Amino acid sequence: MLLLSLWLLISMDSWVLWLLLFVASALVLWRQVLSTHDLGYAFQIMLLVFLALAVVFLIFPSPLFSPGAPEIVPGWRASWIVAQGTLSEEGWLLGSGPGTYLYDYGRYHPVDINATVLWDVRFDRSTNYILTLLPTVGILGMLAFGGFITLIGCRIVRVFVRRKKNEQAFDYVVAWLVLFISSFLYHWNITLVSLFVLLSLVTVWMTSEPPPRGFSCPPHSAKRVWCQLGLVGLLIAVTSTVFVVGGRLYSEVLFLRAVAAQASGEPIDQIIQKLDRAAGVNGINDMIFRNLAQALLLKVGEVTTSLDSDRSPSDQAVLIQSLVSASVNAAKRATDIAPYNVLNWRVRGAIYREVLPFVNRAADFAVLSYERAIFIEPNNPINHVGLARVQLTRAEAEEAMAASSDASMQNNSAARVQE
Question: Which one of 178, 180, 302, 394 has the fewest CB atoms closer than 10 angstroms to its CB?
Fold first, then answer.
């Protein structure tokens, strides 16, 4: 297992991982110097090897090829610009809200990103966890996070600086400290956040005075009753979570089947059927409704370009109108579910543009949709291009209507002259 971990470290060749390995090894060696407990000669040699490898690969590149794709995140400058823009517009105290960095980046990322291949990439996290947390929770949230870290740090200092030996707790302290340092160097996901919370609780538990000896719950006691009530509440929460997550997972499976059906060239009717089932199972997933709207629009194009001898012109018109209405309603549902997702407004604007001959004031609705998309992501050129296309389509339609009106007036005039 140790050799496999070293091989993964060398293959990934991440300076963040090497730096964290260096810090962890140095802390354990420092513990060996100050402690009377001997860790063993072989373990000391292994720590020295870790330190040497960390220093070498922090300076020189790895000779092995990385098996995975590199992670791409915004740089320090772009992350700081996003944080500044969010806090200045949304408020310094509370920020934009937890879990909203995706929308913060779309609205406040620097314009020079458009000169790179990442101009239309929407990042949901910053270059590190601290710069991801700052614009979303604001100054008050950062003060709360800092206070939480300070309380744990004071407990650790009180236990170890005062020479109170707690060898068992030191391992947890090192793991907690290394993970905390990584928050300034790496963009955490939900797994790392949960691990940090768990390590924080364990560290507080292990550095308590006196050290914990276990947990007892005597029968016929108030503590036992509360434990039973807590267990019942936990079971209810777990059951509810499994039910909700199971439904969402099933909708994702149906959505993936629809994507696979499109990739394999299946008829559009089967794709619409699968997407409609997925939307019925999970009615709060905007991605499903967004793709359903596009699929219905493709069906409109298929019906208008094909001639069905078994269907009368009036039935054909009714079918087209129903498909157009369903497509527009699905796009509107997507924007209702996630009004700050720019992709939903782009699709809604594109659908209104395409159904302009069938929907009254469709051009106005398309303009409003793209203006909303520009408000959400003002620095993304694709939104401005979409608005320009709508204006051009509307101008062409008005020109065609004017030409048709002129031709009709000329025909009426010619008929009167002949009379």
Answer: 302
